[in-house]
Amino acid sequence: MEKLQGIRRAVTAFGREMMQGHRQPEKPFVRPKIGLALGGGFARGVAHVGVLRVLEDEGIPIDFIAGTSSGAVIGAMYASGMSGKDIHEVASLLKFGNFAKFSFSRLGFWNSSPMASFLKRVLKAETFEQLRMPLAVSATEFTTGDPVIFSSGPLIDAVRASCAYPGMFHPVQIDGRLMVDGLLSHPVPAVPLKQMGAEKVIAVYFSSHWVGNTGPKHFMDVIGQCFSIASSRMCAQWQSSSDLVLEPDVSAFAYDAFSHVNELVKVGQDAALAALPQIKEWIADPSAAEATPKAAELSQAPLSPATVPLAS
Q1: Residue 9 and which of 26, 65, 219, 258 are 20 to 30 A apart at CA?
Q2: Identified catalytic residue from 63, 112, 157, 181
Q3: Could you say which of 63, 69, 185, 208 is catalytic?
Q4: Among residues 102, 228, 108, 97, which one has the least CA distance to residue 171?
């Protein structure tokens, strides 16, 4: 009987060793590809710079970037190779005249040709293919209302089209099609990032309306508030493709607050810093954490001769 039990134990041990030998090795950790979606907001979009600066300072990698309106401008600058600090410095010098000149027509009040000149000066690329990371720029075809995503070909006109706020800027014609602001189709372009291959999407959204409690001061406030209301009703469209939504508190700033760059950057930084723990979880290697002894385990572990405290 004892011999039979011994044989059984031997067979069980042998089977256990065989199973361990055929166990599939664990796959090495591969961090998810991260996309950053920058929504529109006119001058308030400067808060995007604060988000970029925090991500850079903390070493958070960005694999894809997408932008709408002012988010397209900042996204193009970053994707072309400018750092968050570089963009901050440029933004500190900006005025509305860098983006538009008064040119009244039946299509709008301002022509965005100065924006083309500005982008040619600051961008380190003329086409999407020359960018250092994949970029998507959202616009809207005026005649059909269809969303348009630019991710290849000439860069500058695509950004201008994304910024062509209806009633304010003239529409931009690209390949025979009339384009207006991307906020009408992708207020925050999270969906294009998922389509590009992003596994985790950080979306930056400005929830404040165009006009405050004081009410509209002129017809542009009326138009702006209408689009702001419409955009707020479209949140479900992009939030379902977002893994994290940052909402910098820009309620204290007017839509044309170009003179408050540092304050806007600060609120962007605050929003990003609050979300850092979650973002860092995405890129942390679980196996590295498991390999690090916990404090409780260290306190219970016997001291080796090299760690025994010396008597005083």
Answers
A1: 26
A2: 181
A3: 69
A4: 108
112 counts as catalytic: no
Question: Distances in Å between the alpha carbon of 242 and those of 35, 38, 245?
Answer: 9, 12, 7
CA distance 36 to 50: 13
pTM value is 0.81
Say how many C-beta atoms besides its own lie within 10 A of residue 129's C-beta: 10
Beta carbons within 10 angstroms of residue 21's beta carbon: 7
* Location of structure tokens 């760059």: 261
Compute the C-alpha angle 135/137/141, nearest 5°.
Answer: 150
> What is the distance between the alpha carbons of residues 298 and 39, in angstroms, rounded to a whole number?
47
Is the Cβ–Cβ distance between 40 and 183 less than 8 Å? yes
Q: What is the pLDDT of residues 198-242, one digit of tens each?
A: 999 999 999 866 666 666 666 667 766 767 777 777 788 899 999
Count the alpha carbons within 13 Å of 164 in the hemisphere toward its beta carbon.
27
Amino acid at 281: E
Cα–Cα distance for residue pair 48/53, rounded to 1 Å: 9
Catalytic residue flag (residue 181): yes
